[in-house]
Amino acid sequence: MDRLEIKGGKPLSGEISISGAKNSALPILTASLLTKDSIFLKNVPRLNDVSTTVNLLRTMGVEITFHDGITIEINSSKATRPFAAYDLVKTMRASILVLGPLLGKFGFAEVSLPGGCAIGARPVNLHVESLKKMGANIEISGGYIKATAKKLKGAEIIFDTPSVTATENIIMAATLAEGETIIKNAAQEPEIEDLIIFLKKMGARIEGACSDTIKIKGVKELKGANHLILSDRIEAGTYLVAAAITGGHLRLNKISPKNLSSVLLKLEESGAFIVTSSDYVEIDMRGKRPKATNIFTGPYPGFPTDMQAQFCALNAIADGVSEITETVFENRFMHTQELQRMGANLNIDGRKVTISGADSLNGANVMATDLRASASLVLAALAAKGRTIVDRIYHIDRGYESIEEKLSQVGADIKRLHP
Ligand code: EPZ
Questions:
Q1: What's the average model confidence in pLDDT over 361-375?
Q2: Mean pLDDT of 19-23
Q3: Using alpha carbons only, what angle is made at residue 9 by residues 7 and 10, rounded to the nearest 5 degrees?
Q4: What atom in ligand 1 is closest to the CA of residue 191?
Q5: Nearest-atom index, ligand 1, CA of 122
Q6: Is 312 among the catalytic positions?
Q7: What is residue 116's predicted lDDT score, i.e. its pLDDT?
Q8: CA of 325 to the centre of ligand 1 (A)
Q9: Which of 65, 143, 197, 257 could pair with 73 as two cysteines, CB 3.0-4.6 Å apart?
């Protein structure tokens, strides 16, 4: 397994270009199942989760061509096997995003239950119950969701908790259903808005993007479209923390600050000087140690759970005591034990971790447990004295494109060790 070797203690300085958003690319890729025409996507990030989704679609008979290394063409006209096998789904729970499009377009789907992961049980009851309300017959047996529907019908869906991928699955299924579907308590993440923009280019009739109530009027068919994938706000937030934790100065290009408001507020609270424009964000710590900041994660526009681990690392060397409360997932503090190995002073009490900022951290051998936990270990290593080895970095390759190149270009001493 690849590992990352990082020698910390140097303030980062320079510019980083932000890639397309993983959590926008994945639903938009599966939305290609909704039309027999070709769709053309740009700014799709080169990530393991994207490759997994491409492989999954290809097993269904979808034709996917990479043009000039920038554009991906997807054509589902020959897709005949609406089946998502366990061996692919178990590596990426977002594979559940094929369920809605397959049912909406083909009236049949057999999708492996994704199962839990490091950060929680990750149930899919909201996906299944909502599709049943739209007329699907669904049975769960042998670890698979087996769903059929002659023709889905519009329904009123009220989520008991705003679920990102459940919102996306129901939107996609509803685009070809009979009648109108209304989703209440919908998730409002920017990646959902990007999916809606793309679906409307295909001819879908959708209102309510960026709100908790989304209305979809079913149409007969959808056509092909071109789309530029939204930039990744979590990748951007991670590199902003890299500047904050090393006392450095970074300018991130190709990212809109409007999707980062809650993160930028917390970084300013930690003492960062932030300058923004429509397509870049600049952060300058002016060599100062960050101040401790309290974090309370929640659904968008609240503070993103996907930035919680990164702020644990920042608070581990901040001046003062902080509390970080994780309200979205029940087990998303796996990174804290590894941070303790580097000298972090913290204490977990249920969903809250209390951190007393240490003057410095020390390099150590640490192990990644999930995608954002691995990012927090890289951040801690960038600030730590001495050498850190981060193991199992296949987790980080799922969501960060060329991380060692991007960090090296702004002064980090980081290299990938092959076994
Ligand atoms: C999406 O996961 C993201 N993944 C996650 O990003 C992100 O952390 C999460 O949303 C929250 O923002 C993708 O978009 C591919 P949820 P998702 O359904 O949709 C409960 C990353 O790091 N729930 O919004 O799976 C669930 O247990 C990944 O990029 C149900 O109870 O998350 C959780 O408590 C990690 N029943 C809450 O909803 C369901 O049927 C929010 O989860 C579905 C969810």
A1: 96
A2: 97
A3: 95
A4: 14
A5: 27
A6: no
A7: 65
A8: 17
A9: 65
